[in-house]
Design goal:
This protein is of the alpha+beta class. The chain has a single domain, classed as Pnp Oxidase, Chain A. 16% of the residues lie in helices and 42% in strands. It has two helices and six strands; from the N terminus they run αβββββαβ. It has a six-stranded antiparallel β-barrel with strand order 1-2-3-6-5-4. A hairpin with a 6-residue loop joins strand 4 and strand 5. The two termini are 14 Å apart.
Amino acid sequence: MLDNALRKAAAIWVAPDGHPAKLVWALWRDGAALVVTGGTEQRVDGLADGVPCTVTVRSPSTHSHLLTATATARLVTPDEDTALALRTARLNANPEWDSVHRLEFP
């Protein structure tokens, strides 16, 4: 169910331990959610390498709660293919970000 929900979600709520949840754009890729932050994208206080997070996914059509899961954030440097996928999937004309985190689910 997690895989299916995150595949369809364009945005997810991410709450790093000790911080409130923020709605962020996400891309499901290779079994993890990629989240871009900073620059022209949403800032997420407390999101850092190795930090546990609570991720909430809502239905894209009804906006009702679908699931809540625990993930660990990993700061990554996207390779060229991943950066292209992030830019292509993002609807902003010129998305810019300071960092990319890979949210890994146990």
